[in-house]
Amino acid sequence: MNKAILSVLIAGLSVAASNAFADADTVMVGGQAMYPSKDIVDNAVNSADHTTLVAAVKAAGLVDTLKSKGPFTVFAPTNEAFAALPAGTVDNLVKPENKATLTSILTYHVIPGRYDFRKLDAAIKQGGGKADIKTVNGETLSFSENGPHNIVVADESGNTAAISTYDVYQSNGVIMVVDKVLLPK
């Protein structure tokens, strides 16, 4: 076989293998692929389930932070989670005069570092069934197991959120989709 043809075949197989690997690590969220090569913001803007979160992140001025190197773990509430808040809450929070409160709520959903299921599970086991982890806003989220491969997150008031999608890897961290908005004190 001609060396040039062989070289093209090998290159083609290498690209195909690389694409297959990338596809294997890609998770669907909100009807869209979340690519591990993209950052948290670039992926989140494509999720139909996170339009409210993206709008809130923009209103709080956190886009550049969540596009930075990180790594971060983001517990991303769905649109349904925001809709479950009392009527008018989201509209009120995105007003410029409430930016500090919105920022506090959003950064309460972010932990410095890359906490995937295995790391959270290990922390829970090491903590005797519960792990308390400090968020970017300085307050704590508590994690516990609710059955096999089922971690719940509790805010400091005891409100809980279930993680519905685990380990959505990003270039600068990981996203965990949650079904409730967690509120700091």
From TrEMBL:
Gene Ontology terms: cellular component: extracellular space
Family matches, as InterPro entries: Adhesion/Biosynth-related, FAS1_dom_sf, FAS1_domain
Pfam families: Fasciclin (PF02469)
Record-annotated FAS1 domain positions: 37-182
Signal peptide boundaries: 1-22
Matching PROSITE patterns: FAS1
Keywords: Signal
Metal-binding found in the keyword field: no
SUPFAM superfamilies: FAS1 domain
The protein's name in its UniProt record: Secreted and surface protein containing fasciclin-like repeat
Species: Caballeronia sordidicola (Burkholderia sordidicola)
